[in-house]
């Protein structure tokens, strides 16, 4: 008989331990390596220790840690108990962490000694009396298993909540996405059964914070495939590819500013000396797609997904060559349907712009404690992404911006993303964000925030050069009037610019039309 269908995270862990007990499952750099058998044993011991503290099925338990083995071990341990993990970005402080703790009604917090002070401040902000558990002191995690009571029996079901995953909050307060075992099995399993067909011969790598969704689906996909997963402490552009070579990585996923930051690094004679067979990336800078492939000698495949929906659209080997540099995010995965609709939620003709909506198995269950937002997002039985796009005759999607990121200037629509993509092709631009600002004459005007490479004291000459760069590539009405050059821009855990926080960025604004600093 063949292996039974894997329907939940715990079954995936136990199956991997049975099939590949001595194979290395995870390598944390820096940190430890664990075999699949050790992942199963340590997560079981940790689950018993957490049960001893009173954590039970149905509890929401916040977890704040940097990238270390105890993070996914705690996730698995909580799932064994039927509790849900609520990841907290380790850079969160009293206000943002406090909002999440209060909103999810956390029953406990698991953290590390170096972060416990921030957690206690956040609990005060949230007015919660939840216990704080130091993972280093819990048997099965950082310490050898000690005397524990028997772990309460919990029958895991595919519909059980395993995460409340708060979105990055690029435009407002994060919302909690309620994610089930089924969500994770669809997401991770799709990467094994479909492109890129991850298998036991693969070594995967992730460099994002474990509080974000990508390292978590990397864990699930690696468990299902029997692949080796390498976890870096963070994304470091200057050393990223040397780590890829050191660990003989065959596959990785990245997104947002990461490919542009890689290209800012000086060429290396070893750039082509690696084993990578495929890179999946969200928001590949279209104008630099060919450059990425030429420099590292590997195909880069666009992919689209959201915390709310998992993996939805992807470019595959079948259409990669045709789509390089087009900005196309591919067609729907096997389990999903995609549609482009107008403001009345009616399908538009192929080639016309509208909102991308999705449906199929493996979506989130709901937004935590927000029935109105849930109903709005799922109206008509389709999840409304808030992304504007068009669909070609083959059913492949091209994104053109966000509904809330479209600037209406004097009757013309300006896509913030389109302007950002052009700015990022300039060698001096490290990060870029484009927003609307009120204008008495035109309704809205275009403003650009840019963080530069190697420019200590930018002046109007710098701005003029960037504006000319845009004028050569865009209609004049799309070229930003206002420019703010910053040392850095605030980013989310997913390396996207947090536009809601740009107002806090200190700097002077150059009015290109009036020729004055504001």
Report a brief summary of the structure:
Helix content is 27%, strand content 27%. With 518 residues, the protein is of the alpha/beta class. The chain folds into 2 domains: 9-144 and 151-337, Rossmann fold, CATH 3.40.50; 410-517, ANL, C-terminal domain (GMP Synthetase, Chain A, domain 3, 2-Layer Sandwich), CATH 3.30.300.30.
Report on this model:
The protein is of the alpha/beta class and 518 residues long. It folds into two domains: 9-144 and 151-337, Rossmann fold (3-Layer(aba) Sandwich), CATH 3.40.50; 410-517, 2-Layer Sandwich (GMP Synthetase, Chain A, domain 3), CATH 3.30.300. It contains 14 helices and 27 strands. Strands 2-1-10-9-11-12-13-14-15-20-19-17-16 form a 13-stranded mixed beta sheet. α2 (36-52) crosses α3.
Mean pLDDT: 91
Q: Radius of gyration over alpha carbons?
A: 23 Å
Q: Work out the helix count.
A: 14
Strand content: 25-35%
Number of domains: 2
Shape: globular
């Amino acid at each position: 008989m063949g292996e039974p269908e894997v329907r939940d995270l715990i079954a995936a862990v136990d199956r991997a331990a049975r099939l590949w007990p001595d194979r290395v499952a995870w390598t944390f750099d820096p940190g430890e390596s664990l075999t699949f058998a050790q992942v199963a044993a340590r997560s079981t011991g940790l689950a018993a220790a957490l049960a001893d503290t009173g954590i039970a099925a149905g509890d929401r338990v916040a977890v704040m840690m940097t990238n270390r083995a105890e993070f996914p071990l705690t996730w698995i341990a909580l799932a064994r108990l039927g509790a849900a993990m609520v990841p907290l970005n380790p850079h969160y402080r009293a206000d943002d962490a406090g909002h999440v703790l209060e909103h999810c009604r956390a029953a406990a917090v698991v953290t590390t000694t170096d972060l416990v002070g921030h957690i206690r401040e956040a609990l005060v902000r949230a007015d919660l009396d939840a216990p704080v558990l130091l993972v280093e002191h819990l048997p099965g995690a950082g310490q050898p298993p000690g005397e524990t009571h028997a772990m309460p029996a919990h029958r895991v079901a595919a519909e059980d909540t395993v995460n409340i995953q708060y979105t990055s909050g690029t435009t407002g307060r994060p919302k909690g996405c309620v994610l089930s075992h089924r969500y994770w099995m669809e997401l991770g399993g799709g990467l094994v059964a479909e492109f890129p067909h991850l298998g036991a011969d693969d070594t995967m790598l992730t460099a994002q914070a474990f509080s974000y969704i990508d390292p978590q689906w990397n864990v699930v996909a690696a468990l299902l495939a029997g692949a080796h997963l390498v976890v870096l402490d963070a994304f470091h552009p200057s050393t990223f590819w040397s780590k890829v070579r050191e660990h003989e990585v065959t596959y990785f996923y990245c997104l947002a500013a990461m490919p542009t930051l890689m290209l800012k690094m000086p060429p290396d004679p070893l750039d082509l000396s690696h084993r990578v067979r495929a890179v999946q990336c969200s928001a590949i800078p279209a104008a630099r797609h060919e450059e990425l492939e030429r420099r590292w000698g590997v195909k880069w495949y666009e992919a689209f997904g959201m915390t709310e929906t998992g993996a939805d659209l992807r470019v595959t080997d079948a259409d990669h060559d045709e789509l390089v540099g087009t900005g196309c995010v591919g067609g729907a995965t096997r389990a999903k349907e995609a549609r482009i609709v107008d403001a009345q939620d009616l399908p538009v003709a192929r080639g016309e712009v509208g909102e991308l909506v999705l449906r199929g198995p493996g979506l989130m269950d709901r937004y935590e404690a927000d029935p109105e937002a849930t109903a709005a997002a799922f109206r008509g039985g389709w999840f409304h992404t808030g992304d504007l796009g068009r669909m070609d005759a083959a059913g492949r999607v091209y994104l053109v911006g966000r509904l809330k990121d479209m600037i209406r200037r004097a009757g013309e629509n300006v896509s913030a993303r389109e302007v950002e993509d052009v700015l990022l092709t300039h060698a001096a631009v490290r990060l870029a964000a484009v927003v609307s600002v009120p204008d008495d004459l035109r309704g809205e005007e275009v403003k650009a925030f840019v963080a530069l490479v190697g420019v200590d004291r930018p002046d109007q000459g710098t701005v003029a050069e960037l504006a000319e760069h845009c004028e050569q590539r865009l209609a004049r009405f799309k070229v930003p009037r206002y420019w703010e050059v910053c040392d850095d821009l605030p980013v989310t855990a997913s390396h996207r610019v947090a536009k809601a926080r740009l107002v806090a960025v200190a700097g002077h604004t150059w009015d290109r039309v009036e020729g004055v600093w504001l």
